[in-house]
Amino acid sequence: MQRRPSTLDEVILSPGTVKINVQGAFIVEEEKHWIGDGAQHDTRDIRLPNHTGLVSHVALDIGGSLAKLVYFSQERDSKGLGGRLNFLKFETNRISQCFEFIQQLQSKQRTLHGSKAGEELLVIATGGGAYKYYNEMKRVLGVEVLREDEMECLIMGLDFFITEIPQEVFTYSETDPMPFQEPRADIYPYLLVNIGSGVSMIKVSGPNQYERIGGTSLGGGTLWGLLSLLTGARTFDEMLAMADKGDNKNVDMLVGDIYGTDYSKVGLSTTTIASSFGKVFKMKRQGESEAEDGSSMSNGDGQDFHDRSSSQRAFAPEDISLSLLYTVSNNIGQIAYLLCEKYQLEDIYFGGSFIRGHRQTMNALTFAINFWSKGEKKAYFLRHEGYLGFEETFAP
């Protein structure tokens, strides 16, 4: 079915026949900013200088932890030429805030152009929340909601970013943090590791040819949940900020702690993690024996970590955060490597809102792939890693 494009001064294009023109597309370099409690505008927008159509739909991907929204906007004073894709994210437990934002877009469209048949805002939704919140979306927004298959959206979205958008895909290392890969057409086969609340690992053999070959329940939701219990942190970004300041050797047992040196015979350096959180039990017992009331080494006791001084905590929340981040990331990286070995895949693309461009996370995933593959396989990341599920809606 074809729809006649509607107009809107800043947002919205019509689904169906209108697809974006990506010629000359580039990523806008701006700072992120918050639009409200629990919501953030990820202003690495994609500028589309040669697009001339208008779009009247928004794309919404509702996961277990985050809801991600993408919409098109025209450039001011562009006289119909050029626009951009805008990227926003909301905490899923505050999904009403996301719906309120969509209502603002809807209200602007109706104010400027009325509510003619075929020109109403359309929501194209994916993710588990597209089903969980389907009735609520229709009731609150009063618009048509189309649900798309999550896996298919992920694959088409990743293909779009790899083949069409410059300075989108990159590898990571501490010495060279972001060497970009040029868009290319010869991308198959590859493994997509999509890390959200849980983790799905998908073998992609060609356009619309994919198979979920593995995954793990230990993903972003695991990190978020455990750090909420162990540190009292309230948001995922706060947890990542703490990890940036952490030192995992205060919590993890390293190869050097066991051997006093490296174990070069089997390729293990002194700083290789032998046991995640391996020092906790011994140190906690030691501290409890030194302080009969146990307060000097307590960690928790129903108190928020913001209310306790450093002297009251044996294990700094920063160290705990980094250790658990490494634990989850290393596990994901090793499973991804094993699946690549089994299915003879060389390229691994990591996506999902767990990553968020966080250097420690990317470094841990890269290290795991390099370590287990002995440098034979590559880990790739994307600047819009959390928004793969949208591009079927906007792709050319």
The major sheet is characterized as: 8 strands, mixed
Number of strands: 17
Low-confidence sequence ranges: 1-18, 300-312
Distance between the termini: 17 Å
Order of helices and strands: EEEEEEHEHHEHEEEEEHHEHEHHEHEH
Indicate the structural class: alpha+beta
The percentage helix is 25-40%
Please tell me the overall pLDDT: 82
Structure overview:
It is built from 11 helices and 17 strands. The protein is of the alpha+beta class and 396 residues long. The strands form 3 sheets. Strands 1, 2, 3, 4, 5, 6, 7 and 8 form an 8-stranded mixed β-sheet that branches. The longest helix is centred in the last third of the chain and has 27 residues, at 317-343. The radius of gyration is 23 Å and the shape is globular. 40% of the residues are buried. Mean pLDDT is 82; it is low at 1-18 and 300-312.
